[in-house]
Design brief:
By secondary structure, this protein is an alpha+beta fold. The protein has helices spanning about 1-15, 20-40, 75-85, 100-105, 110-130, 200-210, 215, 245-250, 255-265, 280-285, 315-320, 325-330, and strands at about 45-50, 55-65, 75, 90-95, 135-145, 150-155, 160, 175-185, 195, 220-230, 230-240, 270-275, 290-300, 305-310, 335-345, 345-350. The longest helix has 22 residues, at about 110-130. The N and C termini lie far apart (about 80 Å).
Length: about 350
């Protein structure tokens, strides 16, 4: 039994990629647990695992005496003769756990403790591997959907994408390969230890970094992102190299780079905007595809600005359900008030929205 158990340990440790020491430690703990019940509680119990020969011995060492004063450490000469006919007072003898008891341990108690230790070891392995990757992108295959949670299988372990970390357009099927942002890695837990997100602005930022070499190399910087997941995203960028157009770098030739990002976002539209340290210019650009005629700073301390747009551009500046101006305000951190003017019989009628 012991030889078979030790052989299975070598095979299991190889399959799971876990040190055999984890298994040996589990066996020792299991044997000590059972031996503590077989022998007197608190006795001096030893576990000897011979990995080379495939032998396991569990025994309790006691001193042979004529009169027992401490049963945990001593055994009477008369009782000692049952274990060793040659024993005499003053000798130390080893009282072994019976083989049949040892067999039951290997089959029952040890299995439970071993699996628990394996589970803990695998969780530690996952944590050690993915913790340094927190804040980056990862991809994996959808293995199942549980209560609207998307479970993604990885090289080792699993990641979970809860509904609140998904875009409204994110609908996945089993077997589909999915990219996600590693939001957090837990050291232990009952379910997947990796919390992923496709909802956060950081997810879009990492997609851009992956798709655009100028961003990953640090030549083009992302100033900020405002997003309404599933609908629209605005990205403000600038370049530390005057020869590199930041907007053009993100968009790519024939729009191929931004289209690739849009495809990953399930068709979510992306506006790429050039950041400027001039509030007026930045605010005007942020309203794209709307065209600003004039930007007036109303209250710099309260970050209030008034933007005049043409009547033809008003709808685009506002956006469907006000999403464009909402995202522009988030991106610039300015409270943008839109105004459009129409000339009627020589007079101007100004509308504030």
């Amino acid at each position: 039994m012991a030889e078979e158990l030790l052989k299975s340990i070598k095979q299991l440790s190889k399959e799971r990629g876990i040190s055999p020491d984890i298994f040996y430690s589990a066996i020792e703990e299991a044997l000590l647990t059972v031996a503590d019940k077989y022998f007197d509680h608190g006795a001096d119990i030893q576990v000897d695992i011979d990995k080379e020969r495939g032998r396991i011995q569990v025994y309790c060492t006691k001193l042979v005496v004529k009169d027992v004063e401490d049963p945990l450490l001593e055994i009477s000469w008369k009782d000692a003769l049952k274990y060793d006919p040659k024993s005499k007072p003053g000798d130390e003898i080893n009282i072994h756990l019976p083989g049949e008891t040892l067999g039951r341990v290997a089959a029952q108690t040890a299995k439970q403790i071993i699996m628990h230790k394996v589970f803990k070891a695998e969780q530690q392995k996952i944590y050690s591997k993915y913790l340094p990757l927190t804040g980056t992108l990862l991809s994996g295959e959808v293995t199942r959907i549980e209560k609207n949670n998307v479970i993604i299988g990885l090289d080792i372990g699993e990641a979970i994408l809860p509904p609140k970390e998904l875009s409204p357009k994110d609908v996945f099927k089993r077997g589909e390969i999915v990219k996600f942002f590693i939001k957090r890695v837990f050291p232990e837990g009952k379910g997947p230890l990796i919390l992923g997100s496709r909802y956060m602005n950081d997810f879009v930022a990492e997609l851009i970094k992956m798709e655009v070499p100028e961003v990953s190399e640090g030549i083009v910087k992302i100033f900020g992102i405002s997003r309404e997941p599933g609908i629209k995203t605005k990205v403000a960028v600038y370049s530390i190299d005057k020869t590199v157009d930041p907007v053009g770098a993100i968009v790519g030739m024939n729009g191929n780079r931004v289209l690739s990002i849009t495809k990953e976002l399930r068709g979510e539209r992306i506006d790429v905007i050039a950041w400027s340290n001039s509030p007026e210019r930045f605010i005007a650009s942020s309203l794209t595809p709307g065209e600003a005629i004039k930007v007036k700073i109303i209250d710099p301390s309260e970050y209030k600005a008034e933007v005049t747009v043409s009547d033809d551009s008003l709808s685009a500046a506002i956006g469907k359900k006000g999403i464009n101006i909402k995202l522009a305000s988030k991106l610039t951190k300015w409270n943008i008030q839109l105004t459009n003017r129409m000339e009627i019989k020589g007079d101007y009628i100004q509308k504030k929205l």
